[in-house]
Amino acid sequence: MRKLWKGLAVLVALVLLVRHGSELSRFVPVTVWMGLFAATLTYGISLLFPTEIPVYRRWGIAYLAYTGIAYLAAGIVGLLPHSGLIEYSMWDQGLISPYPLLGIIGQCISQFPCAISRAPYDTMPLARPSFFPVAVVVASTIMIIAAFMMAGKVELHTGCGSFR
């Protein structure tokens, strides 16, 4: 029953953060608002896991699920037609783009020895490749599944909760 009340409190906090975010932005910086939103949502996700898991582990698994959900949203938006500015804004404002790493890997595969100085450094490609949003959706789905599998594979008979 306590989890239900905590879940309702998280829901109320999320509604207040989203609904009154513009008024809150006058008093606190955007990064603080984003941190509050991420922490609140991560705590809400951590309520889905058993209480026998230690708190630090529960928060870590919940943050993995939260990150997977954020990247899944960006990947799905990237799959929609005519969503270039929205997708770019999502990558530019809050998410770490994996595209620079993909540019370096592509440069190292095509050039030997690897010339990292000639690799393209863009947070988003100018010509939108279709593989990028698909790869993000697949990777984020794996992250979400892994988080819930990690929460399910915790042994509950030991004091600190070790993985099997």
Give the SSE layout.
Blueprint: H1 2-19, H2 21-24, H3 30-46, H4 55-79, H5 84-93, H6 99-110, H7 131-152
| Rg of Cα set | 19 Å
Q: How can the largest sheet be summarized?
A: none
Number of domains: 2
Number of helices: 7
Share of helix among residues?
55-70%
Shape estimate: globular
Low-confidence stretches: none
Average pLDDT confidence is 79
Overall structural class, as computed from helix and strand content, comes to: mainly alpha
Order of helices and strands: HHHHHHH
Number of strands: 0
| Strand content bin | under 5%
C-alpha termini separation: 29 Å
Summarize the structure in short.
66% of the residues lie in helices and 0% in strands. With 164 residues, the protein is mainly alpha-helical.
Describe the 3D structure.
The protein is mostly helical and 164 residues long. It folds into 2 domains: 1-47, no CATH class; 55-164, no CATH class. 66% of the residues lie in helices and 0% in strands. The protein has helices spanning 2-19, 21-24, 30-46, 55-79, 84-93, 99-110, 131-152. The longest helix is centred in the middle third of the chain and has 25 residues, at 55-79. The radius of gyration is 19 Å and the shape is globular. The model has no long low-confidence stretch (mean pLDDT 79).
